[in-house]
Automatic annotation (TrEMBL):
Belongs to the DedA family. Coiled coil: none annotated. The keyword RNA-binding does not apply. It is found in: Cell membrane. It comes from Actinoplanes flavus. Keywords: Cell membrane, Membrane, Transmembrane, Transmembrane helix. Residues 35-163 form the VTT domain. The chain crosses the membrane at residues 55-76, 142-165, 177-196. Its main location: membrane. It is a multi-pass membrane protein. This is DedA family protein.
Amino acid sequence: MTFDDLESGVVGLVETLGAPGAGLAVALENLFPPIPSEVILPLAGFAAGQGRMSLLAAILWTTLGSVAGALALYRVGALLGRDRLRAIVERLPLMKVADFDRTEAWFARHGAKAVFLGRMIPIFRSLISVPAGVQRMPVGRFLLYTTAGSAIWNVVFVLAGYQLGENWHRVEEYAGLLQKAVIVVCAIAAAIFVALRLRRIRRERTAARAGAAGRGTVYGTARRPVDR
């Protein structure tokens, strides 16, 4: 199935079911990222401009779909659980349990902000719900920040489609630039992490070899065999 097929399916869903169809498409987008909200939301705004649904219904249904999809991923994180995820991290190359512990501590302090802002960042919009579930963030709190972040994102894109009318596809072009920028930043961050971790591993191995060699000497001088 190509991207054009997915886009055609989304368009058909919105045209057939109206605002509830847009909400359903957004919920599926959370679970299946190749379905882009950057297509669904402006399309819903365009449909509202054509009188096929009200603007308020477009915003409410798409936000409801966003929250429903986020809750499903929150549940996935809760089922996965902290201990299972910690065990997975322990087996990953270049990763250490300490990395997981630091991330966990950071999320405990900034989880609410991460969920709120994450709902407005491509790629992370869906993923941010998983660590919230792993950490068992209170559901009420999760819903509050997820709904707020999703509503802002949805309003911007629905209104853009509403204003652009027949040119609603232009929203997808600009949103694509934002997504590419996020991917580039993530790739750079990952490359820096790998480079620093490999350098650290090399240093640790060098220090270990030096320590092993040092154990074969006495005060820095090689041991001499004892004459008998």
